[in-house]
């Protein structure tokens, strides 16, 4: 089968690149010819807004100005100017591109109009993971319901997300029509299962994040060592959201073990220096994978930081803030895997015990969840 995958990628984000890559590679392992449909996300400065790509929720004048400043001007400057004046950003960009080159992509589509006028010949179309169905996106999300695909072609969703727990009443009818364009639906969150049921009356399957469809052996060829860092001799930090408490815990572990603390930074500029930690400013996805796989332990508040720690059996602690709304995916995954004890809420940080980080990860439960998710793909595709 020739399969086309549309998802969010090429957005300078570890999770986005890795989930897109994993979906494509898993389908290849299943014997299919799969490629990622290279439709630029609206946050890319090269994306061309048209009448067709108007967002679901109308943006006011102030919002349009902020959109242009952030995703057209600032995005362009970060992509074109910053690598010239910032060596770390230049290396980071090169590392991202090196990883992207390992995947298989279609020709580039810079507008919704180009996508809808393309002459595609895939046997099956898949919309992938990430918040592809978030109504607050500043551009139309219709492509992520595969409305550009030929009417008779099979269409399915794998680990797609709404990014919200409810859909506004005025958008419900539109969502119902769009979801019913899909032959089968699998989502990454329980809230997504409930929304699909509410909007369509259909049963969606809950599946694992695409990055978990590949095990450590599968990922190993795509890892790239980081010069100057000794394997299994460092504490690793990856913060999706800033947390001083998380950093304090990492430093505590580092001092206990007498090893350095490295922080993977989401960007190569505007990062505060900490005398007790060492910032890694130029890591791409391949370096990100290697750093997690070879860490003594991982301290994180990121879903993908958590998921890869589990996948690679790297000792870890997931530090969460009860007031933030991004905890659900991490807590849900760890509860399913009987790893709730790896969660440390910031208001309970004084209860932290360094030895708790080093408990062995038992991946037998994860293996079962992955098999169920692969079986969904096999059944949906028809083999």
TrEMBL record:
This protein's UniProt keywords: Transferase
InterPro entries to which the protein is assigned, alphabetical: Polysacch_pyruvyl_Trfase (IPR007345)
Gene Ontology molecular function terms on file: transferase activity
Highest taxon, organism lineage: Bacteria
One Pfam family, short name: PS_pyruv_trans
Domain annotation Polysaccharide pyruvyl transferase: ranges: 13-321
This protein's name: Polysaccharide pyruvyl transferase
Organism per entry: Bacteroides eggerthii
């Amino acid at each position: 089968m020739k399969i086309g995958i549309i998802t969010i990628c090429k957005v300078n984000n570890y999770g986005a690149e890795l989930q897109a890559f994993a979906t494509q590679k898993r389908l290849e392992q299943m014997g299919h010819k799969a490629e990622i449909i290279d439709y630029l996300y609206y946050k890319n400065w090269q994306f061309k807004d048209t009448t067709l790509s108007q967002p679901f929720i109308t943006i006011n004048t102030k919002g349009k100005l902020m959109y242009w400043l952030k995703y057209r001007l600032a995005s362009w400057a970060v992509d074109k100017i910053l690598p010239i004046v910032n060596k770390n950003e230049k290396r980071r960009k090169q590392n991202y591109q090196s990883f992207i080159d390992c995947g298989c992509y279609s020709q580039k589509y810079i507008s919704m109009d180009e996508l809808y006028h393309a002459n595609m010949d895939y046997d099956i179309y898949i919309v992938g993971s990430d918040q592809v169905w978030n109504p607050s996106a500043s551009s139309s999300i219709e492509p992520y319901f595969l409305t550009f695909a030929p009417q008779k072609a099979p269409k399915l969703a794998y680990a797609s997300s709404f990014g919200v727990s409810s859909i506004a009443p005025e958008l419900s009818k539109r969502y119902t029509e769009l979801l019913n364009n899909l032959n089968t639906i699998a989502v990454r969150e329980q809230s997504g299962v409930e929304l699909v049921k509410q909007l369509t009356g259909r049963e969606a399957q809950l599946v694992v994040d695409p990055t978990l469809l590949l095990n450590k052996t599968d990922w190993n060829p795509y890892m790239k060592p980081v010069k100057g860092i000794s394997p299994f001799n460092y504490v690793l930090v990856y913060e999706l959201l800033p947390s001083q408490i998380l950093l304090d815990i990492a430093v505590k572990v580092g001092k206990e073990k007498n090893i350095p603390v490295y922080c993977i930074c989401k960007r190569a500029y505007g990062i505060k220096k900490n005398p007790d930690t060492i910032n890694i400013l130029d890591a791409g996805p391949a370096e990100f994978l290697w750093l997690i796989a070879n860490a003594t332990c991982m301290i994180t508040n990121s879903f993908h930081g958590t998921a890869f720690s589990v996948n690679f059996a790297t000792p870890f602690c997931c530090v969460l803030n009860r007031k933030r709304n991004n905890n659900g995916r991490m807590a849900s995954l760890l509860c399913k895997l009987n790893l709730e004890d790896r969660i440390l809420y910031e208001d309970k940080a004084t209860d932290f015990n360094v030895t708790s980080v080093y408990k062995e990860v038992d991946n037998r439960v994860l293996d079962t969840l992955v098999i169920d998710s692969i079986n969904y793909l096999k059944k949906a595709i028809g083999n």
